């Protein structure tokens, strides 16, 4: 399996989409840092609570943009991992050697994550670092433990999307896998917005309907839950106040531990299904 992991890692590093993403990430961070510089200068005359609330929104915007970019990179890195090589007939030569099919699936999966996890770490710490630097004491207090827990939670996003992408790649063509997973991702995102909106709706029937739609979409694809959990962990103060609760990019309630366990089970199930699908696939 180590050979597949190494080859996948090298293959990802040669893909143009990675360098395109890195270039666009650098441009985004420059623009984001410039915006923070001006935004925090204008906050000096504001009340402390308003400064803390706005600073949490600025951080949320940065992390939300990061989640988008990481999600797209995870999807496009994984949906062609198996199907492209099946179409090219690569596995005729590989499977002639003593390599099990499950080793190929898991090796591809781990190899992709070896690129994505350091990328998430760099991106996330850049956003937090810029806010601390330009905030100059004006941003909401961010304990180290909260930053670490939030980052560890965000790791679940590429782990989840890559597991789904690998499963689809074992089942369908690259284009079909990409379109299906993108639709599912936006499906989950819209469901998350609707659930967040239910927090400000006063009509009980509408409130319940929007909340139920959000729950159902989260069960189908829990990518939005990962962002909400990371945001809640980062912005919930020691007194229990969640400073991101009033935003569409926030979370009206912190996702439960049971939901996080569901996500882990979901990821494992996707990998098992991917292995079973690839073992039965006619190459």
Describe the structure.
Keywords: Membrane, Transmembrane, Transmembrane helix. It comes from Tepidibacter hydrothermalis. This is ABC transporter permease. The chain crosses the membrane at residues 17-40, 61-82, 109-134, 146-168, 174-194, 257-275. By secondary structure, the chain is mainly alpha-helical. It has twelve helices and no strands. The chain is globular, with a radius of gyration of 20 Å. The two termini are 19 Å apart. The model has no long low-confidence stretch (mean pLDDT 85).
Strand content: under 5%
Global geometry: globular
User: Can you count the beta strands?
Assistant: 0
Mean pLDDT: 85
Radius of gyration: 20 Å
Give the count of helical stretches.
Answer: 12
| Poorly predicted parts | none
What pattern of helices and strands is seen along the backbone?
HHHHHHHHHHHH
Determine the structural class based on helices, strands and strand pairing: mainly alpha
How far from one another are the termini? 19 Å
Keywords: Membrane, Transmembrane, Transmembrane helix
Protein name: ABC transporter permease
Transmembrane segments: 17-40, 61-82, 109-134, 146-168, 174-194, 257-275
Pfam family, one: ABC2_membrane_2
Short description:
The protein is built from twelve helices and no strands.
Could you give the topology of this structure?
Elements: H1 2-14, H2 16-42, H3 48-78, H4 83-88, H5 91-94, H6 101-135, H7 144-154, H8 156-171, H9 174-197, H10 204-220, H11 223-235, H12 257-280
Helix pairs in contact: 1-6, 2-3, 2-6, 3-6, 3-8, 3-9, 6-8, 6-12, 7-11, 8-9, 8-12, 9-10
Transmembrane segments: 17-40, 61-82, 109-134, 146-168, 174-194, 257-275
Protein name: ABC transporter permease
Keywords: Membrane, Transmembrane, Transmembrane helix
């Amino acid at each position: 399996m180590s050979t597949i992991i190494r080859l996948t890692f090298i293959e990802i590093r040669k893909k143009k989409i990675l360098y395109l993403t890195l270039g666009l990430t650098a441009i985004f961070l420059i623009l984001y840092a410039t915006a923070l510089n001006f935004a925090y200068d204008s906050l000096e005359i504001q009340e402390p609570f308003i400064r803390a609330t706005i600073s949490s929104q600025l951080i949320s915007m940065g992390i939300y943009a990061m989640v988008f970019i990481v999600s797209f990179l995870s999807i496009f890195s994984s949906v062609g991992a198996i199907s492209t090589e099946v179409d090219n007939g690569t596995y005729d030569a590989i499977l002639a050697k003593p390599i099990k099919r499950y080793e190929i699936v898991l090796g591809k999966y781990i190899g992709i994550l070896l690129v994505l996890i350091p990328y998430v770490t760099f991106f996330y710490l850049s956003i937090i670092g810029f806010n601390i630097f330009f905030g100059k004491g004006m941003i909401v207090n961010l304990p180290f433990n909260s930053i670490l827990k939030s980052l560890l939670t965000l790791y679940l996003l590429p782990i989840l999307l890559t597991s789904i992408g690998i499963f689809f790649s074992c089942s369908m063509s690259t284009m079909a896998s990409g379109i299906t997973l993108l639709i599912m991702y936006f499906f989950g995102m819209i469901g998350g917005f609707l659930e967040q909106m239910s927090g400000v709706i006063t009509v009980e029937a509408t409130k319940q309907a929007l909340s139920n739609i959000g729950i159902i979409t989260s069960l189908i694809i829990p990518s939005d839950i990962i962002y909400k959990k990371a945001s809640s962990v980062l912005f919930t103060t020691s007194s229990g106040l969640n400073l991101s609760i009033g935003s569409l990019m926030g979370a009206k309630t912190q996702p439960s531990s049971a939901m996080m366990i569901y996500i882990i089970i979901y990821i494992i199930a996707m990998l098992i299904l991917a292995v079973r699908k690839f073992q039965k696939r006619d190459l």
